[in-house]
Design brief:
heterodimer; A: 198 residues; alpha+beta; Glutaredoxin; 7-stranded mixed beta sheet; two-stranded antiparallel ribbon; 6 helices; B: 251 residues; disordered N terminus
């Protein structure tokens, strides 16, 4: 109950700040040749804001594709991301964001994403949750190297992949598979954080 | 079958584009499926290019869309080998005008299709069209077609590609789905097999959420396995010498 009250307090007062996707974007600079910020697709966050991925420029992003109805790997993936969050030293943590993008735009409405954020206690200042059109999700997945298909039960089979984007949106490191040693990923995040501009 | 497709055109009044064939609605049996997945997928009727997109058509596209010219395309959307066989941005050099364009990425193929007011076919649409024989929609019952497929897939790619559309038409009037070049599909990245060494050693369960129960439906359809494996090894920016595309469109 106490948690709930705190959450309501945070939600209504905006006390904890806005998610990374709601920050004022850095002045536009031409994206580098391999930057994912070249994409002009539009995405909606769980707080209802419509953005292009370029708004995330300036800070490294730890990205994974997921869906809230997932029964097998996604809860583990999000747990792993939270473990990584807990293992990062404060000075690194202050310079990186986490980005979850839904594979399941039909069921992952803004409300479903917001409920997921609350249920999994994803810190508002650090985690962005996005949904987009099926075509745009397919395109983003293709860029990240995530293969996926939906089965008859509505579950998505998908590559378990965590991608680190550097501050300008290029892929800096990829962590493939569940329950792998996170040490290389943590090291790569530390390195990318040094390039943060905000 | 074909006659009723045309009758349908006449009745509901949609026109099939001159260079496209109408593939009638049908059921497709997926090559891989989970135990609880449906045995068949219903596929709506669609229009499909009768042949692959050619170098000269692609030249028109890059002329109209300079950002897709060889020297202009962003590396995110097409790798270093993009149009490597051309002589320049607006010159396909020794490549034949009527040969299928290759060395194109998924993004470039998608952009071409959108420019033409079309789209890429889904994997299921492509496979459905490719399963049709010379004389009937179910190619497994067409002995000539089966022989031709076996011959095609057992022969290495020719050094000089034949012109697009020079092969024998299938029952729908679509040519060269087998035997010339591989082709992009809109959801090529729905193939859940990995070429990664770790994936081949029993770790799939860690790599793919939910893939543990996928089983093959027809183990004898070797060419389909080859295509499946080929698609699963691709990335969207890859450009390859024997990979081209053709477009689809809703009727």
């Amino acid at each position: 109950m106490k948690t709930l009250l705190t959450l309501i307090f945070i939600a209504t007062c905006g006390f904890a700040g806005e998610p990374p996707c709601c920050r004022a974007p850095l002045p536009a600079s031409p994206p580098t040749d391999k930057s994912l910020y070249l994409l002009d697709s539009k995405w909606t966050s769980d707080v209802g804001k419509i953005v292009q991925l370029g708004v995330l420029r300036g800070r490294p992003q730890i990205v994974t594709l997921f869906f809230t109805h997932c029964e097998y790997a996604c809860p583990i993936t999000v747990n792993e991301l939270k473990t990584i969050e807990s293992k990062l030293p404060p000075e690194v943590l202050a310079k990186v964001d986490f980005l979850l993008v839904s594979l399941d735009p039909n069921r992952d409405t803004i409300e479903a994403l917001a409920a997921f954020r609350e249920k999994r206690q994803l810190t508002r200042e650090r985690w962005t949750l996005l949904r987009g059109s099926e075509d745009d999700v397919r395109e983003l997945a293709a860029l990240l190297g995530v293969n996926y298909a939906q089965d008859a039960r509505g579950q998505f089979a998908h590559t378990n992949l965590v991608t680190l984007l550097h501050a300008d949106g290029e892929i800096a490191f990829q962590h493939l598979g569940l329950k792998q040693d996170p040490t290389p990923l943590l090291a790569a995040i530390g390195k990318a954080a040094a390039g943060a501009r905000r | 079958m074909l006659r009723c497709a045309f009758a349908l055109v006449a009745c509901v009044g949609f026109a099939v584009e001159p260079d496209m064939a109408l593939i009638p609605a049908a059921k497709y049996r997926p090559l891989f499926r989970g135990e609880k997945d449906a045995k068949e997928i219903a596929v709506a009727a669609f229009q499909f290019d009768r042949r692959a997109v050619t170098n000269s058509e692609f030249l028109e596209f890059v002329r109209a869309n300079p950002k897709w010219q060889r020297s202009q395309a962003k590396r995110l959307f097409a790798d270093e080998r993009y149009l490597a066989h051309w002589a320049g941005d607006l010159d396909f050099g020794k490549a034949g005008a009527a040969q299928p364009v290759t060395h194109v990425s998924w993004f470039t193929a998608k952009a071409f299709a959108a420019w033409r007011g079309k789209r890429l076919p889904t994997t299921v649409e492509w496979e459905l069209a490719a399963a049709a024989g010379f004389t009937q929609a179910d190619g497994t019952k067409d002995a000539d077609f089966q022989q031709a497929i076996a011959r095609w897939y057992g022969t290495p790619s020719p050094d000089v590609l034949p012109d697009a559309g020079s092969g024998r038409a299938n029952v729908f009037g679509v040519r060269d789905l087998h035997g010339v070049v591989w082709e992009w599909t809109s959801d090529f990245n729905s193939a859940l097999i990995t070429g990664d060494a770790r994936g081949d050693t029993g770790l799939e369960r860690q790599l793919f959420c939910g893939s543990g129960s996928l089983g093959a439906n027809d183990r004898t359809n070797f060419p389909a396995f080859m295509r499946f494996g080929m698609r699963s090894s691709l990335k969207a920016g890859y450009t390859v010498h024997n990979l081209g595309f053709r477009c689809a469109k809703d009727p």
